[in-house]
Amino acid sequence: MATMLRTSTSSSTSTSASRVLGIRSFATKSDRAAAPLALAQRLSGKHFIGGLRPAKSGAVFDVHNPATGETIGHAALGDEADINDAVTLASRAQKEWREQSVRARGALVAKCGEVLRAHVEELAQLTSLETGKAIRTESRVEAGLISDTFSFFGGLAPEIKGQTIPFNPSVLTYTSREPVGVVGAIIPWNAPLLLFALKLAPALVAGNAVVLKSAEAAPFGVLRVTELLNQVLPSGLVSTVSGYGKQAGTPLVRHPLVKKVTFTGSVDTGREIYKQAAEKLIPVTLELGGKSPMIVLEDANFEKAVNGAILSMRFTRQGQSCTAASRIYVHEAIHDKFVAALTEKINALKAPFPLPLSFVETLLTERMGDPLDEATDIGTVISKPQLDKIQRYIALGKGEQGATAHECSALPTDASLSKGLYVRPVVFTGISNQSRVAREEIFGPVTCVFKFNDFDAVLDEANSTEYGLSASVWTNDLQKALHATRKLEAGVVQVNQNAVVQPNLPVGGWKVSGLGREGSLETMLEHFTHSKTVAINFA
Ligand code: NAI
Ligand code: MG
């Protein structure tokens, strides 16, 4: 079956073709992995709590390279004792941090951005090694975005201010914004660096300390980020503990000194965290899943919409994105042409980012391949359980009467990747809007294209989901575009684009897609500070 783990052992086409034409051959797989592997091994068995140190229990768990199945290192298996150490240290550090002037805090956070910028390549390689995301199309882009996030929030520091309120001529009344204390952050593995940065940078600028519980499958990238930030920030202000959800995540949420939790991940875990936070009555931000609609009208710029579908679906990240456009509604007049163009483009995907390779080499590349190879567009999914989950959904869709699975691209042929967690992108047509494939978050490279002819009906259909994270509409008809932006139930609605995360844009979900927002000044103030009202009677 095409979507199963690939087992072919023939040699890589790109390498052999390069040899034939006498052009520069790529570094071998083992060369490329050497530096990030050494880094993963140096970080093995460690949390960062005031410095790199092992779990109190001494226990560890394996971390794999999803492209080869090899163990790349062992992460420290955190539990309540490690969390308690990190939170206690954070609480102490936060008391001093909050007393620094806001501009001094902002300057240090912006400095973190500079340090991270100097380590983009290293972080990108480590991220590709542990997550299987392609370095050129994904990991390097993500590693670049995080330094930008720190620079942006660092610059916002002086905007942490309140208001004066007219009350009584002899009473001066104003609000001020104060830090909440220690923030507990819990993240998933799909974009670990970015999701950490979007929580950490605003929390720090606002005067808080942060303890991160990293994702089981991707502990090293964020651990290295934590180590780098600790070159700049006061000791103890930012700690990272690795481990499992129940063993390390739950004690973080429950710790009495943790005054705010910010989480990205699945809906079920979000609900669990919300319940635990309710016991303590602390605020939470929850960035949960999505099943995001993309609506393409008859008059849309066709080429732009097809490219938009590829970017929106994050095919280069194997669809492992909460905002993935996994339900694409296309007007019947252009539906068949759209599906043909979409599948053709996925088959010959050229990444939308500048390529450091020569044109000839680009033509010879295989799109799915070694995540650390510059020539690769699409890497692997994160883990065997995720691969199994995706394949179950693909099988379900294939079994549906009237459905067609357009399987795109080709699995890599390099023997060293034969154990890699690769899955071919699938575009379903003819599937029911009521099917599980069309309603549940797959978190893989699987999208459904539906045909429509009634604009109002398609807006209702787009909204007929429990999710409400992101939506887009593609048209040049201004009236229809505005109508859609009013009707669509989602935290982010875009017209003729589906852009990536920017630190100045508030992003978050309606319905089960979450609570609260990330990104932007307002979000920092709302989610990482308390408002205090002060009234001074001088009569
Ligand atoms: P998950 O929600 O279980 O894990 C995310 C993070 O929460 C991890 O760090 C995990 O250790 C932690 N965690 C798990 N249980 C916890 C608990 N009881 N208390 C505190 N922390 C806990 O997501 P998982 O298992 O990695 O992925 C499962 C599915 O979730 C995916 O297939 C996808 O559909 C969805 N997902 C959505 C994401 C998004 O960005 N919205 C990101 C990752 C997964
Ligand atoms: Mg889970």
Automatic annotation (TrEMBL):
This protein's UniProt keywords: Oxidoreductase
GO molecular function: oxidoreductase activity, acting on the aldehyde or oxo group of donors, NAD or NADP as acceptor
Top-level taxon: Eukaryota
Organism: Acanthamoeba castellanii (strain ATCC 30010 / Neff)
Record's protein name: Betaine aldehyde dehydrogenase
Gene3D superfamilies according to UniProt: Aldehyde Dehydrogenase, Chain A, domain 1, Aldehyde Dehydrogenase, Chain A, domain 2
Keyword Transit peptide: no
One Pfam family named in its UniProt record: Aldedh
Active-site feature positions: 287
Family indicated by similarity: Belongs to the aldehyde dehydrogenase family.
Residues of the Aldehyde dehydrogenase domain: 57-534
